[in-house]
Amino acid sequence: MAKIKQIIAREILNAKGQPTIETTVILTDGSFGVASVPTGTSVGEYEATDLRDGDEKRYQGKGVLKAISNIEQIIAPALIGMEASKQPEIDRKMIEMDGTQNKGKLGANATLSVSEAVAKAAARSSILPLFMYLRGFVKRENLPLKVPIPLFNVLNGGLHAGKNLDFQEFLVIPASSKSYSESLNLGSSMYFALEKALDSAGYSTLVGDEGGFGPKLDTNKDAIEFLKRAADSLNLRIGFDIFFGLDAAASNFYSEQRYHIKDKTMALTSKDLSDYYQTLNSDYHLLYIEDPMSQDDWDGWKACNEALSNQTLIVGDDLTATNPYRLQMAINKKAINGIIIKPNQIGTVIESLAVIEVARLAGLKIIVSHRSGETNDDFIADFAVAASADYCKFGAPARGERVSKYNRLLQIERQLKSI
């Protein structure tokens, strides 16, 4: 197998106009891989470090020249000459060189860009589609090779849309009986039906960070009601053809041990908020609720999971942060039945796959997710298929940095039919 010959990194802009890293890995046989990494807006406390320069004279302190220097001065000399196919050894080497629990020395943005670029170069060298190459690092007992069910974030709130609403994402989810192509058509149809419903009611159809519409509505429930209107206009049966979901990102509206949302005049306890989710569930058949409680409100999480998990996915993101220790705590406390996987929360491909394996052994549903500050890199689509994720979350079916992932899944769907 070809060895790593050269590693080059540069500063580019992500979809939000903020700096991020693009890394190119070149192998001795001429194969190469190019990877760029995303940045989160709603960032959990337990995520690995997205290393920034802090120089206010460049990009408001968000430059990534330090991380790039770490790639070129520390990581590259250590990895050059290693066989590119040895992904676990390469990732382990970077973990050891960093030596911290949160990639605080090298930066998760530095290590992940290299990790992904190595995988792309090795896949090209081995003449395999990236998802098939990555599949070699997944324990595959009884795991189907499939395209995950997409979760479309068609209405943005919270930090993704100027705090117009408390809940951060309002999701439409196609029925699992549909093919991926059918699901994409459904998601796109819902997107434009929602635009029409909002426009006819006099609301803005400007979009948020993840491509969904960001109207200023009176309550969070109003947002779900607009999803229902859109579904009704397409004669889609809620709870049969299509389902709804939320990413509450509750840490963002939690203060002084209470939750503050537009729907209620009084601040809510964990139980109050859990009761409200149950009300929404009875009205709208919510299939999915992500981060329903704040990231350290373990009692709230456990109670919410007990109340709703028999009919709804209770999913950890800020709670678990693709972190093996946080995941184990959530499993032990019976706080979740699903987990978000974001490779940039931990910093390498192999660590991300390891967290998936632990979660799957615990019976959790796997949701592979993008970030709000995405790039046009479609690595995450191949990664989701390779890992046999149950769901994937790439934002609205609009904007180039989202559509690149959805279009890549169309290619993979076609490739899988020929295998």
Give the SSE map.
Elements: E1 4-13, E2 19-27, E3 32-36, H1 65-79, H2 87-98, H3 108-125, H4 130-135, E4 149-156, E5 169-174, H5 180-200, H6 220-233, E6 242-247, E7 254-255, E8 258-259, H7 270-284, E9 286-290, H8 298-308, E10 313-316, H9 324-332, E11 338-341, H10 349-361, E12 365-369, H11 379-386, E13 391-395, H12 400-417
Parallel strand pairs: 4-13, 6-9, 9-10, 10-11, 11-12, 12-13
Antiparallel strand pairs: 1-2, 2-3, 4-5, 5-6, 7-8
Structure description:
Helix 7 packs parallel to helix 8 (298-308) and helix 9 runs parallel beside helix 10 (349-361). The protein is 38% helix and 17% strand. The mean pLDDT is 96. The longest helix has 21 residues, at 180-200. It folds into two domains: 4-127, Enolase-like, N-terminal domain (Enolase-like, domain 1, 2-Layer Sandwich); 149-417, Enolase-like C-terminal domain (TIM Barrel, Alpha-Beta Barrel). The strands form three sheets. The chain has an eight-stranded mixed beta barrel with strand order 4-5-6-9-10-11-12-13, surrounded by seven helices. A three-stranded antiparallel β-sheet has the order 1-2-3. The protein has a two-stranded antiparallel sheet with strand order 7-8. It has 419 residues and is an alpha/beta fold. The chain contains twelve helices and 13 strands.
